[in-house]
């Protein structure tokens, strides 16, 4: 099976990343509000397992910082400065029950890759690996400043968003990720003018949490997910005039599967044969297979982009692909959400031999 390297990785932060993280923080927040290198080193030293970066083609484009605290600390009134220990983070508490997130940021030039969604998912995995009760954090409410006259009390604004009478991009995103609003934290970040200095205390209860975690935090374990959601596509072959139409069809189904939080979306074998309908003249079996193989590079680049952009693994059916000595083989492609591509040749004769002859498989399938 052939494979390519991942383009987008979510991995544990290292001390070697501090300089790049400081540049990212400065780009997102500006010099006055950015993390210092000392604060970033403190986060990693205090709880290395809880700090993550998103790396795209070798460049750090996202950052997530967490710590383990007691439920009492997580749910009592607090400010960002106080609970984060001034941005340095904390050593996991002996009676820690809750994973507390105090930072998520994404490079604005890379915000169409669903990096925030990936970081939120990584937090959930960490919470379950440590067998904690849940995840808490204080989220911004940037729509509040525009609605303050209508809702002098920020709690009323939050209720209006929850009841879908108002929209707030950040609150709605966090609720879609499974977090429950637990109330308002006044003066959480006084300089956050859009939120009026307020924040929404959000909580995600861990469905796999044991009833009693004890006082000791368990060690980090490698564990496969308990469930995997697969969406299958019933592809309808139809006449098209350009490859752009084909790609629009594909993206529609990927978008639908992603909205349903599918881990994989499965396309049928040889579904790219629809591209033959672009041709104005009827092609024989050999010419048809040759023509489809010409689309391989564009097909692969498009599907790689879709997998990363929609944060979903794509089993791209199979596609006739030109290999060594001019043979064309029916190859199955898997495009992972990290940007890597894996292939597996079908275990039968080539669709076309290097000498230009057509195999029985090619004749039958063309």
Just give the CATH class of the largest domain: Alpha Beta
Q: What are the low-pLDDT stretches, counting only 5+ consecutive residues below 50?
A: 213-222, 355-366
Helix content: 25-40%
Please compute the radius of gyration using only Cα atoms: 25 Å
Number of strands: 13
Main sheet: strands, sense, barrel: 7 strands, mixed
- State the order of secondary-structure elements, H for helix, E for strand: EEHHEEHHEHEHHHEEEHEHHEEEH
Q: What is the spatial order of strands in the main beta sheet?
A: 2-3-4-5-6-8-7
Describe this structure in words.
With 366 residues, the protein is an alpha+beta fold. The chain has 2 domains: 2-205, 3-Layer(aba) Sandwich (Aminopeptidase); 230-365, Nitrilase/N-carbamoyl-D-aminoacid amidohydrolase. The protein is 31% helix and 22% strand. It has 12 helices and 13 strands. The chain has helices spanning 18-29, 37-46, 71-75, 80-83, 115-129, 144-147, 154-162, 169-176, 243-259, 285-293, 296-309, 360-365; strands at residues 2-3, 8-12, 51-56, 59-69, 98-106, 134-139, 180-185, 199-205, 230-232, 264-267, 313-322, 328-335, 341-345. The strands form 2 sheets. The protein has a 7-stranded mixed sheet, with helices on both faces. Helix 9 links the parallel strand 9 (230-232) and strand 10 (264-267). The two termini are 25 Å apart. Residues 213-222 and 355-366 have low confidence and may be disordered.
